[in-house]
Amino acid sequence: MRFRGRVKGTAPATPAPSPAEPAGPPPVLVIDALGRKCPIPIIMLAERIREVPVGEVVAVLADDAAARTDIPAWCRMKSQDFVREETLPQGGWGFHIRRTY
Amino acid sequence: MPSPRMNARSSGRMRSVVTHVVDTLARGSRVPPIGCPVSVLGVADSSAPGAYLDAASTEPPHPAARAALLEALDAGWADPARLYGTARSTRVLMDRARARVAGVLRARPDEVSFTSSGTQAVHLAVLGGLQARRRAGRHLVVGAVEHSSVLHAAELHEQGGGEVTVVGVDRTGRVDPAAFGAALRPDTALACLQSANHEVGTLQPVAEAAEACRAAGVPLFVDAAQSLGRVDVPDGWSFLAGSAHKWGGPAGVGVLVIRKGTRWRSPLPADEREGRRVPGFENVPAVVAAAAALEAFRADMADEAPRLSALVDLIRDRVPREIPDVQVVGDPVRRLPHLVTFSCLYVEGEALLTELDRMGFAVSSGSSCTADTLRPSHVLEAMGVITHGNVRVSLPRGTGPADVDRFLAVLPGAVSRLRRSAMNTPETGRRSRP
């Protein structure tokens, strides 16, 4: 079990391993929000998603654990398509979002 | 909490509150210190008529608590464990307080113990419940959105070699009763479920969980700190915990109820006090005040709960209509009467609290970036909802429509000011949003 009071050190919780998962279409835009606290990664995503054509994928790189909840939740609220989350070798996560409109 | 004071500007509003309180209360002789302007300095600021809207952190003291406390400070200071006259009369005060609390909780007086806090009551219930059933097993079941005191106790159990199953919640923060029942095993020593969530107000399926626990022969602990006095707890639990300052009683008093016939063993060194359940010299005056407050508060809630609930409905309706990009979280119907939580996209929760405080409004937030953990609220995370820009509004007894109106009047401006400044930082640039 883990919750907010429990975090020791900086090791992020390991997400479910997904070796068989296809890489999916490569993102046409990568937003680097590493080192930025939420809500900055969400703001950057909201500001720049229009730079990719409808149907294309944008990736947000972030290492604030709140982004793991906030980016999928933002996609639900905004009817954008949350494609997947990947763990980055340097720490943090990459979040892939397909622009739907 | 800063001590709010009345000022000339708020007296008209306060008069209507007083009328209401006198109409509905048995002991409504004092002006409740609610809804007055407050500021970080603890001094009323007449230029900023705000409101105290953080009852879920702590309810302002009930007038009945104050009166009982003052009386008991003089009459109940002796050692209730001794045999002489002043000790006996102190003991009588304690026994009466126990009977009053038991009456409200539909328990027997000998099932009720007073602790030094709600947190201590939780720790004793969880660890003592586990300790007593070691022979059955070392498996513990908890809901994912329990209060940190429950989860910290579970963590300690895990560190000691025990096993913990965390039952998830849906998007409204409600535990699935079927999943809760399915988590129970032959070696499950204890199951824990809160009566209602402290951050989003969603009521948990206690009756269904109790039925599943009864069928499995597992004792159920209900952390009712957020709901006692406001909403009655369904029957079927074995352990119950509460906290007096959440119902307008003094700080430093918790309640631990252990049902007759439930096995429990103290996880602490032996002590004679409180039927060997809670160590340390009893704070009799505070206990007396807590009991008086619980009775009075619950009587108030007969009228207050529906009234506050209508105000919460108003907030739930108006906030998303008047502010773009806001998500109201928690169950809209199966919820506490006084609590509503929403998240404002693109705003930092703490910045919003600070901005609202500047305008005299006391609210709280489950948003991330608390210095100690740098993690978002485990509740919002488990629900899978937006964790930033989070505001919890909880209405204390006596909150009027005017208080809510003034809050709703300043909120959209506060949110848009913060959004404008966040959008203009170098890393986010100045662009339009979808």
Automatic annotation (TrEMBL), chain A:
Keywords: Transferase. Residues 31-55 form the UPF0033 domain. Residues 14-26 have a biased composition (Pro residues). It holds the Pfam family TusA. Gene3D superfamilies: TusA-like domain. Residues 1-26 are annotated as: Disordered. GO terms for molecular function: transferase activity. Belongs to the sulfur carrier protein TusA family. This is Sulfurtransferase TusA family protein. The lineage of its organism: Bacteria, Bacillati, Actinomycetota, Actinomycetes, Streptosporangiales.
